[in-house]
Amino acid sequence: MTAPRLGRDYHLLWSAAVSSRFGDALRTPALALLAATLTRDPRVIAAVTVAAQLPPLLFGLLGGVYADRWDRRRTMAVTDGLRAAVVGGFAVAVAVDRAGVATLLLVAFLLATLGTLFDAAAFALLPAVVPAAALPRANGRLQAGTAVAGGFLGAPAAGVLFAVAAPLPFALDALTFVAAALLVLALSAPPSPRSCTFRPGEPGAKPQNEGHKCKIAGGRRRDQGRRSVWREAADGVRWLRGDRTMWRITVLTAASNLAISGLLAVLVLYALDVLRVPPAGYGGFAAAAVLGGVAGALGAGRLAGWLGTTAALRVVLAAQTVALTAFALARHPVTGGLTLAVFAAGSTVWNSLWASYGQLHVPADLLGRVGAGQRVVGLLTAPVGAALAGLVGAAYGTVPVAAAVAVIFALVTLAAWRVLRPAAPAPPPTAPPTTAGTAARPAPHPSR
């Protein structure tokens, strides 16, 4: 059977995402390098990272509301335009030596805040530009493209460009946002979620996503009065909580993020002290994880086709548990790198299939809010995992952290095999009243 074509609009969206990810990979290490030139206080440098991590938790649900209220294509383009203006202005401030610590914190916070709206709109837009059967493959290719752009191209180039001229990586990042905005504007205008609004409770009312079309079977279209953003955000969380399979996948993601974030927090120390990776070789060690992630992303669609989504998710967790156990036992750079690559492959497969499952099952006019709810719940445990790993690592070393991560994944895998039952999926609940309007798990960065 021939796989459905992804089409022109998908390739434009893919190019926009890859361009934006390349710019992110330039900016993030450049911000850290710039912070290190301003201060050697670890608390201040860590605060820059925290400033970028808070907005998804603070504003993620609101971003989902506006992604459902507004035209998603234009929302993505305007958001990228605003991000280009922010980064471009920051590049000028760096060039004239006016970028202090407060400016770094503000820029990191603003960009991450705008990113929450962009991510919610992008998640909700994808089902409108590719056929439903192609979603696992489409998400996998997005994961692979952004991994290559970030891990192999952007991150290595950031240090070189910063050494040439400190404003250079930020100026180039602004250009990538402009390019991404233009690519998104070139998309064919998808149908507005307004055309998918239906009266809940009517017999047979059921949104159906079919490629570029979103139609109502048995439901009567109508425009409803504008409700408060918090009530609309609660609609998305309520829908997510009411769908048994999606809620369980989200909780499993949060549990695994507790472990993954802890591993990432001490990974560099574990690699240098336990695996004996030479400092000059750490870049190659990290590249193994990127390669594994790309391989997993490209194979996600086939795995879903062979096993089905929920069965594939269970198999992925089991494979990651084995890989983490081997990683915790490894004492050589090659063995550690190979096992980390397998684990990273599993993470990108999970990300791709988790996103695809939601895009297939959530009503079109709730996609932004439900997707935002998934990301917020999934990321709640990441700061906790990092903090716990830091405390345990400081007190007992990094080896117990790696062992604990493997144990947590084993428990998550056992839970998944118990609660994810592909043979009898629960039907999605009826969508609550919504306003008529218009994933992340770390792998191996905190966004699984």
UniProtKB/TrEMBL annotation:
It comes from the Bacteria. It is found in: Cell membrane. Keywords: Cell membrane, Membrane, Transmembrane, Transmembrane helix. GO terms for cellular component: plasma membrane. GO terms for molecular function: transmembrane transporter activity. Residues 433-442 have a biased composition (Low complexity). The chain crosses the membrane at residues 44-65, 102-130, 142-164, 170-189, 249-272, 284-304, 311-330, 336-355, 376-396, 402-420. Residues 425-448 are annotated as: Disordered. SUPFAM superfamilies: MFS general substrate transporter (SSF103473). This is Major Facilitator Superfamily protein. It comes from Micromonospora echinaurantiaca. The lineage of its organism: Bacteria, Bacillati, Actinomycetota, Actinomycetes, Micromonosporales.
